[in-house]
Amino acid sequence: MDLTHQNLCKLAVEWLQRPSSRKGPGCVVAVSETQNAINNEIPDAIGWRPYRHGGCGATVVEVKVSRADFLADAGKPHRQAPELGMGAYRYYMAPVDLISEADLPPRWGLIEVTERGHIKVRCGHVFASNCRPEELDNQWRHEQFNVQAEISLLALALARVGDPQKFQGMLREAGNRASRLDKEVVQLRERIRVLENEKHALIRKELAF
Predict the structure, then answer these.
(1) What is the reported pTM?
(2) For an engineered disulfide with 30, which of 16, 100, 117, 174 has Cβ 3.0 to 4.6 Å away?
């Protein structure tokens, strides 16, 4: 695999959407390189797990393909003041041996990518998911993060997709249609059962003569 920034961003989105059963964050929504209207942060990938149990909230993945890029990242305003940045959980993703765990800022995880494109989580809340929720959060969750920027990014991403209410209506109508069809199937099966019983009754009656 060509470990370019673009390819790793795509890989980061796929990883964010990986369910917890496959040792992923279990995000139901994930996007890459999307702006927000609050600050200048453009996360390489960000995803949301909206459930109340462990690991809920946004997870950010910053992709680095060079050592210089990684070192320069520390100078960004939302890195110097982590509460300005997005993500309750945060990771760097980089080729193997580009970043060490000792290089990481507090509460950041590390994802390494092999030349074949295989992912290895070296540390982070997913790596430590066998911990109790309070232990996981105490070690990896950022106590403060920029909720306004996250909401802005998510809203702008939805706006690019189209009218969310229109899609919501389409989904609701599809659900209602499926429910109606399910009821019709149940009725048809019952009608078939009745007809089968009538058929067998007629056969038995004819055989009796």
Answers:
(1) 0.79
(2) 16
Say how far apart CA 3 and CA 149 lie, in whole Å. 29
Q: Please, are residues 16 and 45 in contact by the beta-carbon 8 Å criterion?
A: yes
Residue 97's φ and ψ, nearest 5 degrees, are: 75, 5
The residues spanned by each domain of the chain are 5-161, 162-209
**Taking a C-beta distance cutoff of 8 angstroms, is the pair 130, 148 a contact?**
no
- Could you tell me which of 34, 41, 130 has the C-alpha nearest to residue 84? 41
The 10s digit of each residue's pLDDT in 83-129 is 999 999 999 999 999 999 999 999 999 999 999 999 999 999 988 76
Any bridge partners for residue 63, and if so which?
93
Distance CA 178, CA 145 (A): 41
Report the C-alpha gap between 158 and 140 in whole angstroms. Answer: 28
> In 130-150, which positions are buried (b, 16+ CB within 10 angstroms) versus exposed (e)?
eeeeeebbeebbbeebbeebb
- State residue 135's pLDDT score: 67
